[in-house]
Design goal:
This protein has about 100 residues and is mostly helical. It has four helices and no strands.
Length: about 100
Amino acid sequence: MLLFNIDYAQTKLQQTLSETDFESAKDYARLAKNALQDAAISSMDCGCDMAFLEFDTAATYAKRARDADTPREFVESLNRAIRSFNSGLDALQLCR
């Protein structure tokens, strides 16, 4: 389940990043947030606390992107979500 959740979260982050319409991008950010929360829970189930923290942080930033009032705020939050997601992937490598 962990791999599925990570792949799905990555897909939703990519869709959010590539969307040009601000409101549609915010909708994708909501989907990304949910997927990142699922990835966080899955990583906790696997016993990788650091990955859990990073994916949970990524979900928080995705939520901030979803709630952003300006495109600039949106992009900053989304970039932070992506960085935290990538850190979560790195943390998973250390858990193996």
